[in-house]
Amino acid sequence: MVRIPLAQATPMTDSPLHATVKLNARLQPEHRHELFEDPLDALLESAELGQLTGGGTALTDEGEVDYGDIEIALTIQPRCRA
Questions:
Q1: Is residue 67 part of a domain?
Q2: Does 2 map to a domain?
Q3: pLDDT digit string (tens) for 13-61?
């Protein structure tokens, strides 16, 4: 995965920036929602920075939780310079 510091990122256009956050935690989906998704979605929406668009749980071959992920649409607006 390539990571680009926000200061070096290409300026945003009208469409949101989509990001996937991989949680290195073996949480059941309801716990992922309670501990991560719900608080993050509330924070993003209250700050008008974006919203959650999805998430999922990856399972091992044995059917156990391996990790979870959260999909986010960020709507960061460029700052005006005076």
A1: yes
A2: no
A3: 556 889 999 999 899 999 999 999 999 999 999 998 999 999 999 999 9
